[in-house]
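Input record (one chain):
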Amino acid sequence: MIDVRSDTVTQPTSKMREAAFSCPVGDDVYRDDPTVNRLEERAAEILGKEAALFVTSGTQGNQTAIMTWTNRGDEIIVSDSAHIYEHEVGAVAVLSGANMRTLHFENGMPDAAMIADAVCEEDIHRPVTTLICLENALANGRVVPVAVMKEIHEMAKGRGIPVHLDGARCFNAAAGLGVDVKELTRYADSVSCCLSKGLCAPVGSVLAGSRAFVEKARKNRKMLGGGMRQAGILAAPALIAIEEMPKRLHVDHDNARRLADGLARIPGIACDVDAVEINMVFFRMEAEKEVRAAYADYLLDHGIRVNGESHGLFRMVTNAGVSREDVDVILRVTREYLETKG
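The corresponding structure, as predicted from the sequence alone:
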């Protein structure tokens, strides 16, 4: 089965499974799980921060960070297409009691001037802005350039406001830009990085920042039920994910570009090849609603899993389980489907 619904469907490698089976473990709440400790040390080094914290998911990482940076009644600034706003179940309001001021950016690309204009410092009618949240890579598969992140961070620093980076796919972003991931994370005061997407770990993310930030975040993680015990079984494959798997992300990116280029050549499909900067491909199908609705089922019948249309777009995400040959199968089946409906 070829699965391009997301890169969350990746399977742990044999090396990861062996590491989970054989790793030394302890009680992580007591901080005596050596495998978790090693993961957090290496994650901090790789991400260029003083300390890191192993969390169960990207959502837990983001929400722990927001709880750590804000007080009840504060305001955070986010993009209206950000995962924190769109896909985390309104957790900012429930868990932190903070308000989200959303900004609409062209193609999702953050703009320092717009963010600066939205910052509220002292106004009896409005909550005070205490955090700016960014994403890289963006939910639309684009990558935020280093210069843009630097500009926003310097503006925020001048106003005494921390920046949190939802870096669920920050290693993809770094690979897309051809830079070390530290070149991106240096312009954020905290970063959440998912290890179970393109990096293939079975479970988990890391949250990194200053030592003082992580100490406070550790207690908030506990409050959210993230104080795990013999968590080394999860941390062992996660350690392999963060140390080794970023080196192969360019393969997923190359496959995504091949997929996008092939889709763009199929009559009845509109795909912006230039917008494919990581492993995510978006396209429109210029066909009747019934044809578009039946597309996912047709692919499933031919051994391909894909999500249905959303807001007029289909999305396919290449990953470690999708080969170059699999991409060619997707293109052939898609072409056949549209020819039968023509």
